[in-house]
Design goal:
- The chain has about 230 residues and is mainly alpha-helical.
- It has 8 helices and no strands.
- Helix 3 packs antiparallel against helix 4, helix 5 runs antiparallel to helix 7 and helix 5 packs parallel to helix 8.
- The N and C termini lie far apart (about 40 Å).
């Protein structure tokens, strides 16, 4: 007889705990992105390959968990949160890991190097987008307290404040991304057009990490509003 995955057993007891477990995997995946870019900037192909493998492995782990949760989530849940809302939150969380994989995959498709002028703003953008993802993970970790208080009171207000902080971080990443794109285009006469195209896509996907993190926060705000 096939043994149920441990996460499925956990999900039967607490769907919120399973969501937090998934977000924990997503968080681990995103943390590898910072090290991925450190390796790219340093020109260390060995570490770069190792980081790519780690990101792909974490993204696959997150996908497996998503599939398990979708299959085993009861159709009828007697709780304050609608099943559809939980699945939406799960998808938004998973978008972060998917984007991390896209970033790692793009580096596999083409050998890339970072123009000297782009090093510092690129590092700053990556770090701030990672910050946004970590902040969204912290918000998801508060879901237990929200459940206990019925998504009301001081706990809900504190989480609302955290969501506003996340929105501010994402606004910063948008501006940083625009500035980096402008810098890229200012150097395009000195670069291979295909290289410019790849870097433009890379910058967009880095920014998407922050966008998806904000989406998670907005979904948590929706749960509080309901």
């Amino acid at each position: 007889m096939r043994k149920k995955p441990q996460i499925v057993t956990m999900f039967g007891k607490s769907p919120f705990k399973a969501l937090q477990t998934h977000m924990g995997i997503v968080k681990e995946c995103v943390l590898e992105v910072s090290l991925l870019f450190d390796a790219l900037i340093a020109g260390d192909q060995t570490v770069l390959t190792t980081q790519q493998d780690k990101i792909f492995a974490k993204e696959e782990e997150a996908d497996i968990l998503v599939d398990e949760l979708r299959i085993h989530l009861p159709r009828s849940l007697f709780m304050a949160v609608d099943r559809r809302d939980l699945l939406d939150l799960l998808k938004l969380q998973d978008n972060i890991a998917d984007t991390a994989q896209d970033i790692a995959g793009l580096m596999m498709e083409r050998k890339m190097s970072v123009p000297e002028e782009m090093v510092e703003p690129l590092k700053a953008l990556v770090q701030r987008c990672v910050d946004a993802c970590l902040h969204s993970a912290t918000i998801v970790e508060r879901i237990d307290e929200l459940i206990e208080t019925g998504f009301r009171g001081r706990e809900a207000s504190d989480v609302e404040t955290m969501i506003e902080e996340l929105s501010n971080i994402e606004d910063e990443t948008d501006q940083m991304g625009r500035d980096l794109v402008q810098l890229l285009f200012s150097k395009e006469d000195d670069m291979n057009p295909l290289t410019v195209m790849f870097w433009y896509q890379m910058i967009q996907w880095i920014g998407d990490l922050g966008d998806h993190a904000e989406d998670v926060g907005n979904q948590m705000r929706l749960l509080i509003a309901k």
